[in-house]
Amino acid sequence: MRRVSRIAVAGVATAAFAVTVSACGSSSTSSTGGDNKSKGIGLAYDVGGKGDQSFNDAAYAGFEKAQKDFGVGGRDIEPQDGESDADKVQRLETLAKQGYNPIIGVGYSYAPAVKTVAAKYPKLTFGIIDDNTIETKNVADMVFHEEQSSYLAGVAAAKATKKNHIGFIGGVDIPLIHKFEAGFAQGAKSINPKIKIESQYLTATAQEGGFSSPDKGENAADGQIDAGADVVYAAAGLSGQGVIKSAAAHKVWAIGVDSDQYKQDALAKYKDSILTSALKNVEGAVYDLTKSVADKKPLSGEIRGDLKSGGVGISQSNPAFAKNAGIQAAIKKAEEGIKNGSIVVKTS
User: Fold this and answer.
1) What is the CATH number of the domain that holds 246?
2) Which of 58, 136, 140, 262 allows an S-S link to 274, with CB 3.0 to 4.6 Å?
């Protein structure tokens, strides 16, 4: 039976890591000296890797906190440039052979590898983030209603713009990122049906660097801002750092994604230009799956985070956003509508 679980909010803890290098990508290992028979969490990052201040770093935060709270160790492995599905299979099999449980693929691109390796190791629990196509009893498909948080980002952008002209930058032209764009556009048009929205995807495939190229993000944002946009929302992983850099240079607003990018150390010098972030609780998904294994009640099936459950949301860290009465009233109205079903957010 496929079970659905609320994805809870998890905080960030710290752990000591020793860096090693393997044939399937660079990795870090840690041990807390716990008594659990499992070595702990095995985490395999998506394109862009750790340090993207967004999607992968949200997974890393859950990885760290789970290790601390459950007294287990862990190993996290970076992706390689231009890697194949076979490389991903090797990476996950390495974690399985070494005794990690659960093993989590961060990103939809891990679907073929998770399906293959989970079948070989039926006693282990696997998780995949942003894919719900693996209907296997030892796999948790951890997905989100990204369109709902993006709708809130669109509301914020439409209230913050002074030119009635905003922009969206997607990392890769795929259905997952179309959800971000669709929600953003719908939210903005709920405030101003005539608002002008620039839209651009950086690449057609992830292999071309759409999620891992800050320079591509910066160039795209430069173009949209030059065209008149004064609020730009990026759903582009590591490439989004370039969008934020561009917004800061042009003194316009950027909207972050997945993590609360206003609070990311690597983006601190740009934070005054980060209006808010559309949040996706990848951190909580990693934490909850690990907890379920530690409790010997492993989750499986589709686990979908939405606005009502706290799986997605909008950050309030920037005082310019949190203290703006007009924006806050509009956000509250939108949140209530999405939660009670009177607003149905489009996904394409």
Assistant:
1) 3.40.50.2300
2) 262
- Find where tokens 């891990």 sit: 110
Would you state the pLDDT for residue 12? 31
What are the CA-CA distances from residue 153 to residues 41, 159, 180, 202, 326 (Å)?
Answer: 32, 10, 9, 20, 14
Q: What is the DSSP letter of 262?
A: G
pTM above 0.85, yes or no: yes
Specify the pLDDT at position 48: 85
Which residues make Cβ contacts (< 8 Å) with residue 78, sequence separation at least 6?
A: 25, 26, 27, 45, 49, 50
Q: How far apart are CA 41 and CA 285, in angstroms?
A: 13
- How many angstroms separate the CA atoms of 303 and 295, rounded? 17
Number of domains in the chain: 2
- The domain in which residue 43 lies consists of 18-144+282-305
Intervals of the chain under pLDDT 70: 1-37
Residues 35 and 110 in one domain: yes
**Residue 322 counted as domain residue:** yes
The 10s digit of each residue's pLDDT in 183-240 is: 999 999 999 999 999 999 999 999 999 999 999 999 999 999 999 999 999 999 999 9
